[in-house]
Amino acid sequence: MAIPPELGSNRLMSPQPPGSPAFPESSPPPRSAHVPVLLREVLQVLELAPDLKVVDGTLGGGGHSKAILQRIGPTGRLIALDRDARMVDLSGPRIAGPNVHVVHAPYSHLPRVLTDLNLGPVDRILLDLGWCSDQLADPERGFSFQVNSPLDLRYDTTTGQPAWKWLATVTEDQLAHVIFEFGEDHLARQHARRIVAFRQQQPLQTTFDLVAAITGQPAPWRGTGPDSRHPATQVFQALRIAVNQELEQLHEALHGVCDSCLKPHGILAVLSFHSLEDRMVKQAFRDPTRWEGLLSKPLSASPAEQRLNPRSRTALLRAARKKPSPAPRPSTDPSPAP
Q: For residue 71, what are the domain limits?
């Protein structure tokens, strides 16, 4: 599932220096519309207690971080990361405190963040791979196809290139590949053909442009019949994953980053929201030399939570405990003669 090289950037984000205010102290904390998914289950599998050092790799609306802080108390330490600066500004004030570090960086940069903060390995890591309701509501980002906005789709607007810019030059074959691999859409070739034909007639720069290209009718589209899912759903997912290099970020986290930053016997919990992510997590946790699975099967949201928070319907929670490195075997070579 290689990501087109012209998407994204490897530029490191500079974490916020410890103690520097990222938000005015006099202004009240802004409100978040986000509801954390599987909150009770996340807190249980993390086995939280006072004094622990915990990383929330995706701060988002701050719901998980706030609950984690209540469990680890003032003697614990929370490091909350987010690659979206707007989420840092929105949610940072909700969890601000002397034992909290809020950092603008992706979770794949966790080793550098811990080094810059003069912190060693941590006890717990949480990765919530979903996106925040506040991001969906942002009219400038293009995450919702029900609102006409620039087709950006980046979490971090300071790096990489927006989706509309890539769509202006991508070939039909490349586009079909991205939609099929990242959107798991069996109509990928058809969607790619329509998008390329649309851009030959007019610029494709907004969410409604993309919806019109896919559906052949003006947006917003309203579904009818038993399957009312928007036909652009998987295309938007595919473009968002590609633009943000989401699977590459997750691969780095599962195969090196979390292992190097987590203490022996520490716990890694991952919330995924589609089969591509969950498959990667499941396969990583199957490595018996590195991980001990804590759940016989992934946890999902209860019917009551799904009714109250529809975003939880596809969520799956997996957790594993890091195994200590095996002790080096003693040498069997005979001692050299004097």
A: 39-134+246-322
